[in-house]
Amino acid sequence: MTLQEAKDQVARDYDYPDWWSIDFSNVSEEVLRDRVAALYAESKETKWISIKDRLPKPENVVMVTYKYPTGRQEVTMSFTTEKHPEFFDHVCYDLITHWMPLPEPPEL
Predict the structure, then answer these.
(1) Beta partners for residue 88, in sequence order
(2) Are 53 and 38 members of one domain?
């Protein structure tokens, strides 16, 4: 979710056509800005996605978690390809349970 999408969602929550139409006499601007910030932060959280639900787009590097028959679980980076979207580089596909996009790098 982009910042503008978060603003638009808040406007819809208060039954306004867009962010710029909000009547701030009814709701404090501070409350609305806090809600926008919360929505935006929530959208940036990374969540694990089951490979049963969907696979990542080919050629994207992602984090995967896999579980050995012994019960040991590991996390690593991996990717799929156009030719083999169901296979992850250097990880036995049958062991993979979930994946998620890489988080954004820190600002330097």
Answers:
(1) 91
(2) no
SS3 87: coil
- Give this prediction's pTM: 0.53
Contact yes or no for 84/53 (Cβ under 8 A)? no
Burial class (CB in 10 A: 0-12, 13-18, 19+), 47: exposed
Express each pLDDT in 31-71 by its tens digit: 767 777 776 666 666 678 888 888 888 888 888 888 888 98
Q: Please check whether residue 16 lies inside any domain of the structure.
A: yes
Nearest-CA neighbor of 55 among 25, 98, 95, 15? 98
- Between CA 81 and CA 104 the distance in angstroms is 22
Would you say 27 and 75 are in contact if contact means Cβ atoms under 8 Å apart? no
